[in-house]
Amino acid sequence: MAAPVARGASIDPLTVDPPHYTLEIENQWTRVFREHMGPRDTMIMHQHPLPGAVIVMLTDRHNRLTAPDGTFREFQNKAGFVMWSDASTHQSENLDAINFEALQIEPRVPKGASVAPAPAEKDDPVAIDPKHFKVELENEYARVIRVHVGPHEKLAQHKHPETKSVTVYFTDYNVKVTDAAGKSNQASYKAKQVRFSDATAAHQEENLGDAPVELLRVELKQAR
Question: Global pTM?
Answer without folding.
Answer: 0.91
